[in-house]
Amino acid sequence: MTTSPASGPSNRPAAVSWIYLAVCVVLVSLNLRTLFSSISAILPEIVAATGLPAWGATVLTTVPTTLLGLFAPFAPALARRFGTWQVLAGALVLLTLGLVLRSVPVPDGGAMPTLLAGTVVSGAAIALANVVLPSIVKQDFSEHQGLMSGLYTTAICGSAALGAGLTFPVYEAVGDWNLALGVWSVPVAVAAALLIPVILRHRSSARVSTSTTGRSPLTSPVAWHITAMMVCQAMTSFTCFAWLAPILRERGIDGGPAGGIVAFSIVLQMAGSLLGPVWATRLRSQSWLNVAAAVLTGGGFILAIHGPLSGIWWWTGILGVGQGALTALALTMITLRSTTPHMAIRVSGMMQGLGYGLGSAGTFITGQIFATTGSFGPAAWLFAASGLGAATFGWLAGRDRTIAD
């Protein structure tokens, strides 16, 4: 087997410090979920201001997750051609443009095309960034995989918390939903600018071999177990970003407090996502850890829908800890079960392509349940099923086995 160029000792970052690279990874990750949680936080206000139909709201909350699956398989080939850091930087530029497009003011009744176009561009950009990040952790942070996996997945959760918690206050302050959404393009542009010295220093060393020679992850049961775990966790995680705030508002909680509760839940996701990978890398088998995270996630979501309203902070807190750990553990399985950066990015493309592509059904089904019944109550059955699936496949993915090249 030919060793991937990025895995050799001579190719490790020299002029750009390890700390700077780590900061860049964290700052990039802090921008990868505001697309989802920001629109959810003010969805009723957008609908009221634009006359957006129910199907339009469902499309806007479902399309981004679907795009994560559609565009994820392109990332390995782009990384081979341009390099992982270059793909990451390009994704941020694309994300900036998408977020700006999504927030462009239009005449009354004409918001849907720009909202959808901006969402499509942004979703494609996030898909590429999602896939290359585990490979970057594998190739540039090989001695700190647990720490870096925890940090970047925690930052991703923080991104969702920022979008959920700050978008509504910004909307109240400026009185314009376009501006409240458009503000999220600014930190993305800043993160893209910080990557300029990184891509200049990694012009040749950041490329990852994605040759189709060698074993394909499609033939590996372990890779399929990781992928199935990802499908089940994506069904709840993106449904949480898209619909948890509307679920709370249906239960009688006002927009501001609902956004605060969602932000609180996602902050606890950060705790789960930070601790999960650190514990996982210290264990030979992560099966029980995966199962525990899945049970907390499914149970917390069911309680958030049907549990006593007096305990809503507890239910969403349980959901947050479980969801954060489950998401981080699913992504950590990529690096723990792959033997090289080459295999890591191929598994990442497979797992996130199918995982997000199929997992987006959770967001769509929840929207359809509400459109059909006028209530989110029946969606609890979906989260019970996805929690059970995540526990089952998490157990299988957590066993001490690797995907060989």
TrEMBL record:
Query: Per its record, what are the GO molecular function terms?
Result: transmembrane transporter activity
> Where are the bilayer-spanning segments?
12-32, 52-75, 87-104, 116-137, 149-171, 177-200, 221-245, 257-280, 287-306, 312-334, 354-373, 379-398
* InterPro entries to which the protein is assigned, alphabetical: MFS, MFS_Cyanate_Porter, MFS_trans_sf
Keyword rRNA-binding set for record? no
User: Which controlled-vocabulary keywords does the entry list?
Assistant: Membrane, Transmembrane, Transmembrane helix
The answer to keyword Lipid metabolism applying to this record is no
Return the PANTHER family for the record. 2-NITROIMIDAZOLE TRANSPORTER, PTHR23523
Name listed for the protein in its UniProt record: CP family cyanate transporter-like MFS transporter
Organism from which the protein derives: Citricoccus muralis
